Amino acid sequence: MNEAKGGISGWLVRAASWHAWVVLGVALGAGAAETSLRTRDGGMDNAIVVRAAKAWLDGGSPYDDPHFLYLPGAVLAAVPQALLPWGVLRLLVPLAVTGGLVAGWACALRLYGVPWRSRFAVLGLTGPALGFAPFGHLVRLGNWTVVAVVALPLALLLASRGRWGAAGAVIGAAIAVKPLLVPLVLLFVFARRWRGLGAVVLVPAVVSGGAALLMPDPAGFFTRTLPFLLRGDDTFVRLYEASPAAVLPRVGVPEGVAVLLACGGAGVGVWCAYRCWRREGKVVDTGVMLMLSAFLVSRPSYDHYLLVVVPVLLAGVMEAGAVARGPWFWVALVPQVPGLALPYLEPVTRRAFRDSLSLCLLAGAVALRLLSRAPGAWGCAHRSRPAGRLPTAAGPGRRHSF
After folding, report:
1. Is 329 in contact with 362 (CB distance < 8 Å)?
2. Does residue 388 have a pLDDT over 80?
3. Is residue 234 very low, low, confident or very high in pLDDT (cuts 50, 70, 90)?
4. Residue 237 DSSP class
5. Does residue 366 contact residue 360 with C-beta atoms inside 8 Å?
């Protein structure tokens, strides 16, 4: 990132004042404090995993709860929490989730060589904390999606530096906790990085396989959870699913047609990702497009899944040709502005319509940007760049391919 250039970009990459850091601290701390005061267990979604771990410690099966949707490795990861009282968790969990969001943003900044102490680093995190509803939702729920929020930019950063094996290990570890990043398997297939692909597959397989052998029903994930996910027939979950496959039937579209439309959109997204990789070899753009394609068809698919990709896209806004420089990226975020009143969509049970709109617009914005960009256009994480450290400054007129 060129700190010497003028204009708004030069102002953004210079060091932030202490006033900006105070505002950021208040924005982050307020959300964590509110969650601690309003919840008894640190967040409904985290509590589900903790109760599953408690059930296992008591000799039961964690999969007796149909809302426990994770691999067996998540049970072991939740054991330390299961040993703590709920009163302690209500304080620690919001802080841990907030810290994970900060860490994910820091990794996203490194993808583009943006200084962590810059004004952009502070403003780019303050904005979502105050003006992006899924940010607050994730903290209040304590959802383990935060693991993917950290793992995706970290893995892309490692891959962009040529460390595909380490990137695969990071993604594999995240999948072992929550299988949200499974679509990134295709990134390793596109790149023909078989060692990294092996890490993506083996790490969760070993962790989950070993954990499953310690449980009363080792195949519980496949016999209970997987059918539940494929059916998507839980009336409570369906109200909050943002996937078009779940939202369109609520407005009268036949379910089969809705599934076909969602799968068609996902297929176009995967094709765009493959085309981007073949033409430009961009790790970041390809990975983000794969994730958004999966969100179009995954069941369930919630609003906080957007936090997996939005920070990665936002961090590149100062790069020429970046998705965040297009108008549709910002249009996609409008339905997620807290306090924005949309007719007929204010009841919490209709929140999914706003979330689906954001998801579809964001997926479309990324796809259109990838298709409209000329071959070899400047962007981040090009495969032709040799592995090594990312430069953090350059002279006037120089450009980087991260």
Report:
1. yes
2. no
3. low
4. H
5. no
pTM equals 0.89
Of residues 273, 73, 277, 287, the one with CA closest to residue 184: 287
What whole-number distance in Å separates Cα of residue 243 and Cα of residue 356?
Answer: 6
Q: CA of 295: how far to CAs of 108, 182, 265, in Å?
A: 20, 11, 10
Distance CA 203, CA 38 (A): 37
Residues 318 and 204: their CA atoms lie apart, in Å, by 36
Q: What CA–CA distance (Å, rounded) separates 273 from 260?
A: 20
Phi-psi category of residue 167: left, alpha or beta, with phi > 0 → left and psi -120 to 50 → alpha = alpha
Nearest to 313 by CA among 266, 263, 365, 349: 365
Residue type, 174: A
Percentage above 90 pLDDT, the chain: 70
Length reported for the chain: 402
Name the helix (H) or strand (E) containing 92: helix 86-111
Model confidence pLDDT, tens digit, residues 245-274: 989 998 899 989 999 999 999 999 999 999
